[in-house]
Amino acid sequence: PMYAYDWDLYEWSRRDGGYDYRAWGKVLRHCKEVWHSGPATLKRCKEWYGIGGVVIPTFIPVDHLRGERVEDGEYALMAIRPSPDAGRRWFMDACAELEIPYRTTDLRVPFEEYKRILANATLLVNPLREASTGGLFLIEGLSLGKAALVSPSPWNDGAFYLGPYAVRPKIDTYEHFRDELRRMWLERPTFDRAETAAFIDERYSLK
Q1: Do residues 163 and 203 touch, judged by C-beta distance below 8 A?
Q2: How many CB atoms are located within 10 Å of the residue 76 CB?
Q3: Count of other CB atoms within 10 angstroms of residue 1
Q4: How many CA atoms lie within 13 A of 136 on its CB side?
Q5: pTM of the entire structure?
Q6: How many other C-beta atoms can be found within 10 angstroms of the C-beta atom of residue 21?
Q7: Tens of pLDDT, residues 52-79
Q8: Residue 154 to residues 8, 23, 90, 132: CA-CA distances in angstroms?
Q9: Which residue, 25, 204, 39, is CA-closest to 132?
Q10: Closest to 144 in 3D by CA, of 72, 58, 57, 78
């Protein structure tokens, strides 16, 4: 029997031809069971293919960050891959409007540099309409005590992964996102690293 892990299903990627989702649907129909990275992916799989399954959150290693020195580098960080998702523009437009310095990263950034960028961020942001896990940098940052602002879109599972540590606007509009970003930038919330480490170990480690 075959089991499949359904990592993500994005409208923009299907529209732009990034993945052959028709072929993926055929694979899923031959599976004994389909596992999904979060509720949003499960919902989309039912919508596209009429296939259900089980939500099994992904393993997220953070041991490489245990000894990382944390500082406030005076910038907001969006560490997610490039995509045509409108939320990316919201982040950059809101930071420009509020005069908040920001940084973005992609897979070309060397790993050691990425760790420093993450550890020095003032806050983390994932404003995307579609994000299967919200971006693993959210959990990596949480292990360092970093707070994150995530989109309230039902297709972004950042809040699902962050659990009680999630911060998100009440309504999925640019104005609500901008206002919540302003509040977080001024208040600069952080979390106790021992507490968040225990949360991550319980939910996302192999221990």
Answers
A1: yes
A2: 22
A3: 6
A4: 15
A5: 0.92
A6: 18
A7: 999 999 999 999 998 899 999 999 999 9
A8: 14, 25, 17, 10
A9: 39
A10: 72
